[in-house]
Amino acid sequence: MKKMATGNQAVAFAVKESDVEVIAAYPITPQTEVVETIASFVETKKMDASYIRVESEHSAMAACIGATASGARSFTATSSHGLLYMHEMIHWAAGARLPIVMANVNRAVGPAWNIWAEHTDSLSQRDTGWMQFYAATVQEVYDTVIMSYKLAEKVNLPAMVCLDGFILSHAIQPLEITPPGDFLPPINLPHALDTKNPMSYGNLTAANDYFKFRHGMHMAMQQANKEARTIENEFAQRFDRKYGPVMEYRTDDADTAIVGMGTMAREAEMAVDLLRKEGIKAGSIRIRQFRPFPKLNLENKKVIVFDRDYSFGAGGILAQEIRFHNDVPVYNVIAGLGGQDVSFNMIADLVRRAKAEGEFWLGVD
Amino acid sequence: MLEIRIHSRGGQGGVTASKLLAQAAFLEGKYGTAFPLYGAERRGAPVTSFTRISDQDIKVYSQVYNPDIVVVLDDSIMDLVDVTEGLKENGLLLVNTQHEEKLKDPRYKKFRIARVNVTDIALSLGLVLSGNPILNTPILGALAKLGVVKLDSAEKAIKDMFDDERNVKAAREAYAKVIV
Predict the structure, then answer these.
(1) How large is the average pLDDT for residues B56-61?
(2) Is the peptide bond before A112 cis (omega within 30 degrees of 0)?
(3) pLDDT, tens digit, for every residue of A240-257?
(4) Is a pLDDT exceeding 90 seen at residue B64?
(5) Average pLDDT, integer, range B74-97
C-alpha cells in the first residue's frame, strides 16, 4: 500500500509492521508524533503491544532494557534533550547487548533554546555502543527501522535510526508500507531472562571479564558492518529498494566529493547536477551508516564534508571521522545548525569556493 | 516542478492545506511533498507552509524561495509582510478575502490574481473547529479550479483525511466561486 506520510508516521508504521511488543515512551516535549501515532495504533487495537507511559526518557530506555532483557522486541523514540537525558541507560542497553531500536528525531540542543534540525544530539552518543543510521527520505526511515531490527537482533547491539527534525519528521512524502513478513523473524535473544532457569546478570565484574565484554562489543560492531550488507541485499531482493552504508550519486568519474548525512546530503545531489553543468566533476556521498563507520572511496578526490554538528575545539564530527578513517585532506563546512536552511544553490556555491583543506562556518565566516 | 507557498495563521489549517495539496498530486501519480516552516507555534501566529509537485522524485528539502503560486488564507497577513516576496513573474496569487481592494496594491500588478471567500463558505456549512472556520478543504477546491490539481483528486484527498462530507461540499463550492 502506497500513501503519503510524514517521517514521524513512517517510524510508527515500521514499528507496527515489525510486531514490536513493548513501547515505552515519555509523551511530553521534546517527544514527537512518532509515539503519539503508535499510541493510537495500540489504543485502537491495530497493534498488539504493551505501551508503557513513563515519567522520563531515562525511564523509557530503562523500560526497554527490562522488556528486551526478558526477550521481547521493544522500541522508544526521542529527540535532542530527551536523548541526552537517557544517556546513562543508552550505555547500559548496549553493554547488556540488547537489540533495542530507537528513533531519534535530530534536533538542536540548548541553550540557546532551539528546536530545529541538527545532528549533534545523536552524534554525541557516538561512543555508547549503539549502531547509528541517518535516513533522508520517509521511505528510507520506514525501511531502516525494519532492517535495524533484523541487524540488531543478529549482532545483539541496539540501533538508533535518526531523521532530521521537521525537515523530514514533519514533511510528507510517498511511503510504501511493505510488511516485512519472514524477512524479520521473531526475536530470539540468546541471553533472555528465563523464570524457569533464573540467573542474574549485572554483578560486579573485574577488569579481566569487563575487558572481554567491551572487546566483544567492538567485535560485534565489526560483524554488524558485514551483516548489514547481507541484510540490505536481502531487503533489495525482496522489496526492490536498495540501500548501502553510503548512498553515492555520480561519483564514478568525480574528482570532487561532497560528503554529508541526512536531508542536506540528499539535496547535495541537486548541487552535483548544477556543478556538473558548469564542468565541475562533483559527486555526492551520503553516509547512512555512521556506526559502525563505513569504508569510503575518497582516493584522488577533493573532499568537502558538510557537518550539521560540531565538536567544540575539534570541528565537524563527520569530518573528524573521515580524517581518521581516510588519509585525505578535508575541507569542512559546518552548516545547517539549529535548523539553518541550506539549499542546493548554497551547497553548490560552497563547493565552488572550497579550498583543499580548512574549516568554514556557514553564516558566521 | 511546481512550488507553492501558503500563508495562514496558526489554527486556520494552512499546514493541512499544503499536505492535502501534495496528497491530491500524489493521487494523480505525481511526486508531492509538503512541509511547514515551524516557528514558536501558537494559535493566531502567522504560519508558512510549502508544497512541491513534480513528475520526478523531489530531492529538495530547503524552503521555497521562488514559488509559482502563493496562497493567502488570512488577508490580514498581507498588511504585515509582502506575501508575494520571491513569487515568480506572472505567478499566481490566490487570496481568501472579502475585500477586493486588498488586491489592488501596485505590488501585485505583475502577478495573476485570484480570490475566493472560503471563510464564508466554511461558516455557511458550519465547518468550524474550536471557533475557527475550516479553510483548508475549501481552498483546495479553489486550487483545483485554477488547475493546480484536478477536482477529482482534491475531493479524494479530502475524503482520505476527513470523514465529514461537508469538507467536500466546501471544496466544490469554492471551485465554483473562485474569481480570477
Answers:
(1) 96
(2) yes
(3) 999 999 999 999 999 999
(4) yes
(5) 95
Phi first, then psi, for residue A104 (nearest 5°) are: -120, 120
* Of the candidates A150, A178, A284, the residue with the CA atom closest to the CA atom of residue A240: A178
Facing B23 at nearest CB: one of A4, A263, A346: A4
Domains of chain A, with CATH numbers? 2-239 (3.40.50.970), 246-361 (3.40.50.920)
Given strand B46-54, what is the order of strands in its sheet? Answer: A2-6, A172-176, B31-37, B46-54, B2-9, B69-72, B92-96, B112-116
The CATH number of residue B54's host domain is 3.40.920.10
* N-terminal to C-terminal alpha carbon distance within chain B: 23
Binary contact (A172, B19; C-beta < 8 A): yes
> Across the interface, do A4 and B31 touch by the CB < 8 Å criterion?
no
Between chain A and chain B, the number of residue pairs with CB atoms below 8 A apart is: 56
Q: Chain B interface residues facing chain A, Cβ-Cβ under 8 Å?
A: 19, 22-23, 26, 31-36, 38, 58-63, 65
> How far apart (Å, rounded) are the C-alpha atoms in residues B69 and B7?
11
> Chain A: nearest CA to B105, how far in angstroms?
30
Asked if A171 and B62 come within 8 Å (Cβ–Cβ), the reply is: no
- Could A171 and B61 be called an inter-chain contact, meaning their C-beta atoms sit closer than 8 Å? yes
Are A171 and B35 an interchain contact pair (Cβ–Cβ within 8 Å)?
yes
Whole-structure pTM value: 0.96
Which chain B residue has its CA at the smallest distance from A342's CA? Answer: B62
| Closest CA–CA distance from residue B135 to any residue of chain A (Å) | 20
Residue A84 near residue A105 (C-beta atoms within 8 A):
no
Which of A104, A214, A99 has its CA nearest to residue A158? Answer: A99
CA distances from A238 to A18, A184, A233, A241 (A): 16, 12, 9, 8
CB distance A11 to A34 below 8 Å: yes
Q: B94-149, pLDDT tens digit by residue?
A: 999 999 998 999 999 999 999 999 999 999 999 998 888 999 999 999 999 999 99
Distances in Å between the alpha carbon of B83 and those of A204, A320, B51, B60?
65, 43, 16, 22
Domain housing B59: 2-177
Domain count, chain B: 1
- A265 chain-B contacts, CB cut-off 8 A: none
Q: Dump the DSSP string for A187-208.
A: P--TT---TTS---------HH
- The ipTM (two decimal places) reads 0.93
Q: Which run of H or E residues covers position A272?
A: helix A262-277
pLDDT greater than 90 at residue A306: yes
